[in-house]
Amino acid sequence: MGINQRVTVIAIVVLIFVLKSILSSSTPPFSTGQALSWNLDEEQFERIKVRNGSKLRLWFKGPKYPSSTITWYKDGKKIKNVTSRLKIKQSSLVILKLEEDDSGEYACYKQNQHGEVWKNYTLTVTTDPLITKPVIQSPLNQTVAYLDDVKFQCKVIMNSTSTNIQWFKHYQVNGSYTNEDGVPYVHVIQQSRLNHSSEILYIKNVTYEDAGWYTCLVTNAVGRAYQSAWLTVTVPSTLAKRTIFGMLILRT
Q1: ∠ at Cα 193 (191, 199), nearest 5°?
Q2: How far is CA 139 from CA 44, 56, 131, 179, in A?
Q3: Residue 44 in 3-state DSSP?
Q4: What is the C-alpha to C-alpha distance for residues 188 and 215, in angstroms, rounded to an integer?
Q5: Within the chain, which residue ranges are assigned CATH 2.60.40.10?
């Protein structure tokens, strides 16, 4: 190899080395930024069912990027009309006093120059009542005279579905109202399906055997509720006593 060829090879090697040094040490003329990525802790599609009149917040928890823009859509159309009932706050969409017309397909679209991500929601606004266990108001303790009439009222103050109601009369076995497992001794004395707000237990011509503990039990598909009251039977204040053939007759 001649001198000129050697010089040429050395020059090429030096040039390559210099170019590599420049490329490895120089910064790009602009920042590449950061591409949008999906938050693995969040579902990309969500179904939501709420009652009308409620408040709803749809929230996209994806990562925040200063250079990204966020757009909300309903049924494929960009949401532009922000009202006193509908508010957009960056990654969240708030709807007050939901109506059935608010049902639909919602999407949050987040974009920067390097990519995009979506979060989709299916919203159903329903007028169906929420099913809850019943809530009842306790019947009141009663005190009545012998042979008078008495009534206990079991008032249901909250109920959302078909309901069964039962009245029980408690009794004792060997001086106890419950067995060894704590289960009460009871007789079912009245039962029906509740189609109004209260159920009344009537007892006519009360005797001393009717005195004791009564319980109203209300059940539906979700749960049950019960309340109890005590009946006291007294001797009439205007009692006339007569003995006929050795028998005691009570009358008012």
Answers
A1: 70
A2: 52, 39, 24, 25
A3: coil
A4: 10
A5: 45-126, 135-239
Between CA 67 and CA 71, with CA 69 as vertex, the angle to 5 degrees is 170
The span from the CA of 60 to the CA of 73, in Å, is 13
- Specify the higher pLDDT residue, 71 or 81: 71
Report the relative pairing of strands 150-158 and 135-137 from DSSP bridges.
antiparallel
Q: Are 110 and 70 in contact (CB under 8 A)?
A: yes
Pick the CATH number of 135-239 from 2.60.40.10, 2.40.50.140, 3.10.20.880, 3.40.50.620: 2.60.40.10
- Which three-class secondary structure string do you get for 138-154? CCCCEEEECCCCEEEEE
pLDDT tens-digit map of 6-26 = 545 455 544 555 445 444 443
Q: pTM higher than 0.85 for the full model?
A: no
Contacts of 124 (CB under 8 A, 6+ apart): 47, 48, 49, 50, 103
Nearest CA among 173, 52, 163, 38 for reference residue 102 = 52
In three-state form (DSSP H/G/I as H, E/B as E, the rest C), the secondary structure along 198-221 is EEEEEECCCCHHHCEEEEEEEECC
Q: Are strands 115-126 and 69-74 parallel, antiparallel or unpaired?
A: unpaired
What whole-number distance in Å separates Cα of residue 229 and Cα of residue 244? 37
Work out the number of other CB atoms within 10 angstroms of the CB of residue 168.
Answer: 21
Per the CB < 8 A criterion, the answer to whether 164 and 194 are in contact is yes
Class of domain 45-126: mainly beta
